[in-house]
Specification:
This protein has eight helices and 14 strands. The protein has 298 residues and is an alpha+beta fold. Strands 5, 6, 7, 8, 9, 10, 11, 12, 13 and 14 form a ten-stranded antiparallel β-sheet that branches. The chain has a four-stranded parallel β-sheet with strand order 2-1-3-4, sandwiched between helices. This is Diacylglycerol kinase family protein.
Length: 298
Amino acid sequence: MKILFIVNPISGGINKEPFIKEAKSKCKKYGIHYQIFKTTGTDDEKHLEEVLSRFRPDKVASVGGDGTTLFTAIAVMKKDIPMGIIPLGSANGMAAELSVNPEPSKALEDLIMSEVFAGLDMLVVNEKYYSIHIGDVGINANIVDAYDKDKNRGMTTYAKYFIEELKKLTPFKINIKANGKTYLENGLMLGICNSRKYGTGVPLNLDGNPMDGIFEIIVVENINLNSLIKMGLSKFDKSFHDNQNGILISTDEAEILFDQPRLLQLDGEVIGEFEKLKINMIKGAVKLITHQENAYLT
């Protein structure tokens, strides 16, 4: 067996070297050929393509957070190479959604041992940008953008921008075409959901399933302290989730038009401002290494 480890050295501010050392030791013990690919932020896609073509791994391990998972998924989705996730980022939302063991060493054992594979869906936005998790337009995208530009990190910094955005909330017009219908809505946020929860564990979409060939569009119509508390509590008990404050549409493709160009984030990365979004689903785009305890397989 050959395994390629795709490592983001800076994700989550976590030192990956202890894990890399352990992974090398396990691979040597069991006679597994391995290679380590570390992202640098410069021509990573091109360099990874060269490594994949040369090394030809049997399995690929994404070592990092949600951004690393997406990067890896895009790289392997047209190659029929199975990928697994080692959760070592600040946000490991997709790993949690897919029942990946939160302990990196045990996640590695599962990746090595498992022969259970499942098709993970991929969303394509404007024929160029990809998402396997959650994207949005509105308050959260604005917060992520401000947070990314700040040299400080942590919940205090996030809370600062969250409060600032709450002070200037203004609904905007949203035109959605999906399932042969047109929806005209006013909202504070539009969610594009291939799964259920943000990396924080707070669910936006209780109907999400990243393996069912459809995605959900959520229009959040109002945000107040009561609904925020309920959303926070829903991290621990989904019965607290407030479904009264949004519109939900399930579909496999959609076109969305805003009243003006608005900021889009996908899987924690700010993409840019768009007035129109065209969203398509690629069902089972990625061959995911998983196990029978993954709830989406039942």
